[in-house]
Amino acid sequence: MKIIRNIEEMKIISKEIKSKGMSLGMVPTMGFLHEGHKSLIKCAKENNDIVTVSIFVNPTQFGPDEDYESYPRDLEHDSKICQMEGVDYIFHPEPDEMYPDGYSTFVIPGEKMTNILCGITRPGHFRGVCTVLTKLFSIINPDNAYFGEKDIQQLAIVRRMVKDLNLGVNINGCPIIREEDGLAKSSRNTYLNEEERKAAIILRKSILKGKEFMDNGEKNVEKIRKVIVDSINSEPLAKIDYVEIIDFDTFDRIEKLSKNTLIAMAVYIGKTRLIDNLIY
Amino acid sequence: MKIIRNIEEMKIISKEIKSKGMSLGMVPTMGFLHEGHKSLIKCAKENNDIVTVSIFVNPTQFGPDEDYESYPRDLEHDSKICQMEGVDYIFHPEPDEMYPDGYSTFVIPGEKMTNILCGITRPGHFRGVCTVLTKLFSIINPDNAYFGEKDIQQLAIVRRMVKDLNLGVNINGCPIIREEDGLAKSSRNTYLNEEERKAAIILRKSILKGKEFMDNGEKNVEKIRKVIVDSINSEPLAKIDYVEIIDFDTFDRIEKLSKNTLIAMAVYIGKTRLIDNLIY
After folding, report:
1. Can you tell me which residues bind beta-alanine (chains A, B) (predicted)?
2. CB count, 10 Å around CB of B172?
């Protein structure tokens, strides 16, 4: 396994791989890899000749008051995981090389997909995501890229972007990986103290309460939403950012369940913002 | 020569060309080809194994009050020119295939390069240009792309975009091709009636007056600008959109001539908006 820090070097290596007719899978990450990332890497390994993992804490997708500086980083630990999982290349560029002086071009997803869910409290976040992914896809030129379904809005936006810009990368969504008690794995879980960690299961628990309600035939979205909101509010350490139930195909807010309904939430546990979702 | 109308087919052909190790040159155009385009094609032919010309009147780079519908189109005439010039492929997609229902992603260049010159009276124009070029570059994946220096702001913005997004295409600027009397060749020149056609030489004439002033040692930008503006205003059919003198490297407005000064103008002759420029 090789760690590549230079854009031009990564381009040359990727070109060589493609010129040999080998398939190239890519897992874009911000590092601090956990079981969720491992499952993406495994999926990439199974379906591609060569696998590149990018590790880049992307400054343009953090807001000014967000945790860019404190976001956890551990390249040594990440390298070990990648090595164990049979990754061929880690691409780990410096922020200054990705965004040099005078940098000014951004890729902007449509408002309909960003003026909702995480896009409301994280303005500019998906602009940063789309921009860095357009760059990474250009540099690495993968046949396949793998994304977790935990960041479900990101997955939908990236799919749309790749289709719109004809980027020619297959975007693969992989199921959420959870702790034993149901908490979705996330690099940000490391921010939680013991008490908060226990409280954090309220996200999954509340989604399942809503699901049970739906399984029992409830189709009224506002009623389902209320069950979920009340459940989260029963946890004193939890503070809701949003709980939304939308049509996953159109990103429209709905009153009755649709064929492909997305329940998505962002909840603060103490100061840590966690997300979870369910497609029903 | 083949005319390709389908995005997927164009992608497959371009992939084959690249997989054979052949170099691929691309000339992006909106069709109605003239000597200016021919010079770009010639340059592409000289420096690449295969040349693809895209012909696509891109709706996203026209404002609501601009000439998208009336923009001149003549595929038969364009095909003949391309055939004569030894072009290998024309890529001529339908607007509906380039921008299908639900299309929502845009590539946006930095404000510093767009809040000036043509960007002021054509808001969204360069957003459309950057978006369609990102798409075309993804579909065709050229080694080299060729642009006329007549659209000098476009050339600078595209260079910046390709660098920022790591698109890996060499952007080549080619000199302005002119009519015998100095008028820069443009598909929009066909809009001019006989009287307007004569009046249109005022753009080049006025730039040369400014140049003469600079050749004689004048360094004060406002004085040079006044000479040019007065010259244009001496033509009754001319109405100035802008006359600007800026630093071409930084896109800053300047008071004294810089190492790389750009004189750029847009002038209405009757209802037809023409542009011209000089780098000094």
Report:
1. 61
2. 17
Residue A203 pLDDT = 98
Q: What is the mean pLDDT of residues A162-178?
A: 97
Residues of A in contact with B170 (CB under 8 A): none
User: Rounded distance, CA A196 to CA A181, Å?
Assistant: 14
Residue of chain A nearest B104, judged by CA positions = A110
Q: Does B216 touch chain A (CB under 8 A)?
A: no
CB B237 within 8 A of CB B269: yes
Tell how far CA A105 is from the center of its chain: 22
Q: What CA–CA distance (Å, rounded) separates B39 from A212?
A: 68
- A101, closest residue in chain B (CA to CA): B164
pLDDT in tens, B216-272: 999 999 999 999 999 999 999 999 999 999 999 999 999 999 999 999 999 999 999
How many Å lie between the alpha carbon of A89 and the closest alpha carbon of chain B?
Answer: 19
* Contacts B252 to A, Cβ<8 Å: none
**Distance (Å) from the alpha carbon of B18 to chain A's nearest alpha carbon:** 8
Which amino acid appears at position A189 of this protein? N
Contact B138 A165 (CB under 8 A): yes
- Whether residues A106 and B108 touch (CB distance < 8 A) is answered with yes
The residues spanned by each domain of chain A are 2-174, 187-279
Which residue type does A33 have?
L
User: Are the Cβ atoms of B102 and A160 closer than 8 angstroms?
Assistant: yes
CATH number of A187-279: 3.30.1300.10
pLDDT per residue as tens digits for the range A228-248: 999 999 999 999 999 999 999
Phi/psi at B158 (nearest 5 deg)? -65, -40
Distance to chain A for B172, nearest Cα, Å: 19
Q: Is B67 annotated as a binding residue?
A: no
* φ, ψ at B12 (rounded to 5°): -65, -45
- A161 to chain B, any CB pair closer than 8 A? The answer is yes
Please say if A37 is a catalytic residue: yes
Report the greatest alpha carbon distance in chain A. 57
Position A163, amino acid: K
B243 CB burial (10 A radius; 0-12, 13-18, 19+): buried
CATH of A2-174, one of 3.90.1150.10, 3.90.220.20, 3.40.50.620, 3.40.50.300: 3.40.50.620
Phi, psi of A94 (to 5 degrees): -85, 145
- Reported as a single tens digit per residue, the pLDDT across A4-47 is 999 999 999 999 999 899 999 999 999 999 999 999 999 999 99
Q: Is B45 annotated as a binding residue?
A: no
What is the distance of C-alpha B259 from the center of its chain? 24
Identify all chain B residues contacting A102, using CB atoms and an 8 Å cutoff: 160
Bridge partners of A261, per DSSP, are: A247
B139·A166 Cβ contact <8 A: yes
B261-269 vs B272-279, strand pairing mode: antiparallel
Sequential DSSP letters for A114-169: HSSTHHHHSTTHHHHHHHHHHHHHHHH--SEEEEETTSHHHHHHHHHHHHHTT---
3-state secondary structure of B265: strand
